[in-house]
Amino acid sequence: MTTKRICISGSGLHTPPESVSNDELVATYNTWATAQNAAHTAEIAAGTVQAIPLSSSEFIVKASGIESRHTVNRAGVVDPDFMRPRIRTRTNDEPSLMCEMGLAAARQSLADARRKAAEVDAVFVACSNLQRPYPALAVELQHYLGAGGFGFDMNVACASAAFGVQTAVNAVAGGSARSALVVSPEICTGHLNFRNRDCHFIFGDAATALLVEPVETARGEAPFEILGTRLLTQFSNNIRNNFGFLNACETEPRAWDDKLFVQQGRKVFKEVVPIASALIVEHLADLGIEPQQVKRFWLHQANLSMNHLIVKRVLGRAATEQEAPVILNEYANTSSAGSVIAFHKYHRDLKPGDIGVLCAFGAGYSAGCIVMRRM
Ligand code: COA
To answer: pTM (2 decimals)?
Structure first.
């Protein structure tokens, strides 16, 4: 950190209006699985094909805390013959879907910060899945928004927004931007295998945006000074997506489901809880802040029990829902957008001087912690 004091001066959230409940999702999956099993009755009886097990809403809520998810296209997701969002192919002259979602969130964050797009000198699109390799979505967004300066895309999976904030802090503190936008549009349902019972329920779609600028220029209603940012990465194959531009060149063609999200959920749970909690504890200690001083934790929203455990390790006791707000019940895992949705929805009630911690973690592994104080 430089000596220049930096803050988050505005936030924005775009929530796709359509959503799918657990019951609707499970009904679709079970219709598909039952039809598959019926089509292979003889092979299943002979033991040459394994019957596809059915899913259940009770399991989903108990294992994850997720009750529903927003999606860019409900009809495609609940169609047992399609089971993924159906997205209209756009021409190159139209804004891409991710750009459109990011724009809605970005405009809201600028209004919240009482800033104009022309006052933004850097746009970072920080998310798990980018719609195309180039031109960068950030440059497209910069164009449609009317921002100046420069932009680039960055992908650090679910921790992307935290990495984006550190990048924005560096740009503003270093003087290369007066203010910088971190935009996280996530269409997670596009990379979700809705035919995999172990994970068909875990993702949803949303877009978030945060504006970062110097404390001295902030004029939004509820700015938060950034006291410190800390990032961490540690290689793991337990969350992986093999989709990429070399797929078509590979000597052994990959199956369709090897080009979607896969994870070892149990291992992820076990390994990421200590990584995230230690990151928060050590970061707070280095800033001279006692965990008990923290009024709010805006955590990545992947699994409710995981979040309970992380905060318990930090505080030495269970957190109240007010201390660690939950949005995954409505949104499911929206990857990099999750912790920012929690921040966006639950920060205005904090009082000047109150401390909050945003912590995001995910594939890579990657984790990022931002310690803030309400101005
Ligand atoms: N419906 C009913 N039963 C199901 C099911 C479903 N949809 N999915 C799995 N099961 C069964 C399993 O087959 C297993 O049965 P068994 O005990 O007979 O073998 C049992 O339920 C437990 O499955 P498991 O996968 O071990 O569940 P879990 O408690 O680990 O919960 C996750 C699964 C994915 C919710 C959980 O592991 C998780 O959230 N992990 C963290 C993931 C994460 O943070 N990822 C980050 C992504 S960015």
So the answer is: 0.97
